[in-house]
Amino acid sequence: MARKEAKQPEIDVVEWLRGLPKAELHLHLEGTIKPETLVELSQRHDAEPLTLEAAKKLYTYEDFVGFLMSFKAVTERLRGPDDYELITYNMIRELASQGVVHAEVYISFGIIYYWKKAEVEPYVEAIERGRVRGEKDFGTTVLWIIDAVRHFGVEEGARVFRKAAELRATYPSIVGIGIGGDEARGPADQFRELYAEAKAAGLRLTAHAGESVGPKSVWSAINIGAERIGHALTAQNDSELIDVLAAKQIPLELNVTSNLKTGCCLGLDEHPVKLYFESGLMVTINSDDPPMFGSDLLGEYVLVQDRFEFSLEQMRELAANSVEASFLEPARKLELLKAVERYGY
Question: Which residues form the Adenosine deaminase domain (predicted)?
Fold first, then answer.
């Protein structure tokens, strides 16, 4: 009598994706505040603290301007260094729960310099306390990328980047710099000399580009030396640019839900994530400002796998890309790449 083969159990795709070792490369610290944490901050600072229901309402908006207003309403409750320690620790706990083994997180010195009129050192010390505790408790490692608001101008960008270089001597976890903000009012080519200076100081280079303006912004980011590009949504409109991105294997930090929620991409079917992947580009999946967009990195992996019909092997490739594109030291990078490779079905 022929022996029946044991039936293989069906894979729970969400749980498989949760367990897949992966890195998050495009995440803003100030954009990781969940409503529950906002309530805790409100209890610290507001005469009449927010209820959870009221806090959740602050995360609703209808367009990009509304998003900016929501972001400000949430982040204005970051008053002192201890608040930054809290959100850093909570961020790492959340990342670990999604199977994120490493994250490279943007910190906006602009919020501290311009909104709080304060020096950054006490805030960086607090953020580092949160990072050290979080890494110890949850195992997810974190490096920092210091972000300048490009439309504040070159002079302000210089202040941010030079402070990042200065603090790197004390905090090796500060690994790179980038420019966010309004691409139209702060073209990347204005920062060419500052990027060269930052590179000479040992900082790695990123840039937001092609999120809300055309492919020219991505070209400019490449031309000033950006090693990774955030969003790159409009690169799809320039076939020559696609060829260059594929040939140079410049990692792209894609943020699908973010692009939809801000209106930069009009529909999921129009998002180029699968086009870029099939064109041989170095695609990574990221979450940007998770609670503001009602998603997180695990949610992005689930969305991409389901809606764009990526195979699990292709999802493993995306996870490997995220590690390969990181600014980790080679030994740690190799360790994580091996973990991705060993991860089974």
Answer: 21-341
Nearest to 234 by CA among 249, 248, 245, 247: 245
DSSP codes, 155-215: HHHHHHHHHHHHHHTT-TTEEEEEEES-TTTS-GGGGHHHHHHHHHTT-EEEEEESSSS-H
For 251, residues 6+ apart whose C-beta sits below 8 A from its C-beta are 25, 227, 228, 229, 282, 284, 321, 324, 325
Q: Which residues contact 148 (CB under 8 A, 6 or more apart)?
A: 109, 110, 156, 157, 160, 161, 177, 178, 179, 180, 181, 191
**Residue ranges of the chain with per-residue pLDDT less than 70:** 1-9, 114-116
3-state secondary structure of 16: helix
**Among candidate residues 70, 79, 65, 80, the one with its CA nearest the CA of residue 31:** 70
Confidence (pLDDT) at 321: 98
pLDDT at position 198 = 98
Measured distance CA(228)–CA(249) in Å, rounded: 10
> How many helices (H) and strands (E) in the chain?
17, 8
Catalytic residue among 104, 128, 183, 211: 211
Distance CA 305, CA 314 (A): 9
- Tokens at residue 84, please? 């930054």
CA angle 345-103-304, nearest 5°? Answer: 50
pTM above 0.70, yes or no: yes
3-class secondary structure, 230: strand
Active site includes 253?
no
